[in-house]
Prior knowledge:
Elements: E1 9-12, E2 15-18, E3 36-40, H1 49-59, E4 65-73, H2 89-98, E5 101-109, E6 121-129
Parallel strand pairs: 3-4
Antiparallel strand pairs: 1-2, 4-6, 5-6
Amino acid sequence: MRKRAKIHVENVDDVKIHAIPAEEYIFDLENNIDGLVICSNALDHTPEWAFVLSNISLYMKTGAYLLMNTFLNYPMANPAGHYNITHNPNQFYRLLESMGFEIVFEHINKPDDKQPRWYTLYTNLVARKK
């Protein structure tokens, strides 16, 4: 059962800002976003990243877009405040598809032998809610 989040909302030219942890579900947003959700360099900063993705999916109406960039894994010891999502980008994309997204664009930065050992797997993507 999802718990109701305490919400702080400000209106700025018809834009609502919700300043709460992304893991907390906002009932008022369910099936309410019809434009664009931007998740930039944030998903790998929570151990509950799958809940964040699930919440985003539930908030979005059919046809809305998700613009995301995130590190998927850290081959060396995880830097403080970072979490591995997956070593296989296709698994991540399949998860998004199972949540009702169609991948419109994706780009993967993969480490190779010429890059520093700390270099990580990173994705940029655009997905549309089906």
